[in-house]
């Protein structure tokens, strides 16, 4: 027993505090009829993105790509939240090595989704601030439930979203709208997001959102898959190239920023306020 546990730890590259649980935080379900895979984020209450969720997300994307699914729909098992973005608790009061791992896995998860050759869609069945918006805008199509919020609110938190993190956002919004939204740290309501083009459709239920995403993926049935994916990747190649150039430095920039005492203090205050709000 001890021996097999040890072997498992060695296989994972040694014990890691923030990867202590072995239960997967994502699940994949492939529809037999359509061949479309639904990838569900399942870290209640708000799918905040800790290292394990980000690693599991990458592994699920890999699984979907290798099982020859026709497309990928990203959604959430939480009733009112798609994803609350990075897990602030994991970034708070921690060491540099852990911050490095968090950011590296965020980068890895983003590039796995943004650079996927499969058709991708997000069924946004709840709020999607910051890192939640990042995942949604890495997909090619977005369907969102009414009266939820989506956007990159980093400046409201006193932090800066690096260029690669804005890529998906900039792909779907006109430069002028994106610049204003990012500098304001604006969260769009679903209805505003639809009007600006940040989401493509509104659905009244999660099931309806999944159906609309499946219909989007189904629209490629008669298109040659290789021609489709190469065309998609041509559109994304410039952003991917820029990202690859700076990805190592970007990790170090994040570690330096997130470990600054005033940033750590800000995180603490933000967490306290979140907790106060949730107790009301
Ligand atoms: C503040 C960060 C500061 C510094 C980071 C430093 C450097 C970073 C540099 C660049 C980074 C840019 C890239 C991306 C960044 C991010 O993603 S940061 C995270 C930003 N996320 C948010 O601002 C969202 C915060 N959450 C909410 O607004 C709301 O929770 C919600 C609208 C998503 C959902 O609302 P409700 O359904 O009402 O749920 P509650 O608010 O009651 O929350 C339930 C429970 O969950 C805890 N929680 C919520 N969000 C997070 C989170 N992101 N991380 C950790 N924990 C979170 C909340 O405190 C409640 O906990 P309990 O009180 O029940 O224990």
Automatic annotation (TrEMBL):
Transmembrane segments: none
Name by which UniProt lists this protein: Enoyl-CoA delta isomerase 1, mitochondrial
Any Pfam family the entry gives: ECH_1
Known catalytic reactions: (3Z)-dodecenoyl-CoA = (2E)-dodecenoyl-CoA; (3Z)-octenoyl-CoA = (2E)-octenoyl-CoA; (3Z)-decenoyl-CoA = (2E)-decenoyl-CoA; (2E)-tetradecenoyl-CoA = (3Z)-tetradecenoyl-CoA
One GO molecular-function entry: delta(3)-delta(2)-enoyl-CoA isomerase activity
Signal peptide: none
Source species taxonomy: Eukaryota, Metazoa, Ecdysozoa, Arthropoda, Hexapoda
Protein's GO biological process: fatty acid beta-oxidation
Domain of life: Eukaryota
Keyword Isomerase assigned: yes
CDD domains per record: crotonase-like (cd06558)
Main location group: mitochondrion
Pathway(s) of this molecule: Lipid metabolism; fatty acid beta-oxidation
Gene3D superfamilies listed in its UniProt record: 2-enoyl-CoA Hydratase, Chain A, domain 1, 6.10.250.170
Matches recorded under InterPro entries: ClpP/crotonase-like_dom_sf, Enoyl-CoA_hydra/iso
Protein encoded by which gene: LOC108082026
């Amino acid at each position: 027993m001890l021996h097999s546990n040890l072997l498992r730890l060695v296989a994972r590259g040694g014990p890691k505090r923030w990867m202590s649980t072995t239960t997967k935080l994502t699940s994949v379900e492939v529809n037999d009829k359509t061949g479309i895979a639904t990838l569900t984020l399942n870290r209640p209450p708000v799918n905040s993105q800790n290292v394990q969720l980000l690693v599991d997300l990458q592994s699920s994307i890999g699984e979907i790509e290798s099982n020859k699914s026709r497309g990928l729909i990203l959604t959430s098992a939480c009733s009112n939240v798609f994803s609350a973005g990075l897990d602030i608790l994991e970034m708070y009061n921690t060491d540099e090595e852990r911050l490095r791992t968090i950011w590296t896995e965020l980068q890895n998860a983003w590039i796995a989704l943004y650079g996927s050759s499969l058709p991708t869609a997000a069924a946004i069945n709840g709020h999607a601030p910051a890192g939640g918006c990042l995942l949604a805008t890495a997909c090619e199509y977005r369907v969102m439930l009414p009266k939820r919020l989506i956007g990159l609110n980093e400046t409201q938190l006193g932090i800066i979203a690096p260029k690669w993190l804005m890529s998906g956002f900039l792909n779907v919004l006109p430069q002028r709208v994106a610049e204003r939204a990012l500098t304001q740290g604006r969260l769009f309501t679903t209805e505003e997001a639809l009007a600006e083009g940040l989401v493509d459709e509104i659905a009244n239920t999660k099931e309806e959102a999944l159906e609309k995403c499946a219909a989007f993926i189904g629209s490629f049935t008669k298109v040659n898959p290789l021609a489709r994916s190469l065309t998609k990747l041509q559109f994304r190649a410039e952003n991917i190239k820029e990202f690859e150039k700076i990805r190592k430095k970007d990790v170090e920039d994040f570690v330096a920023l997130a470990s600054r005492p005033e940033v750590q203090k800000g995180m603490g205050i933000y967490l306290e306020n979140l907790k106060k709000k949730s107790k009301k």
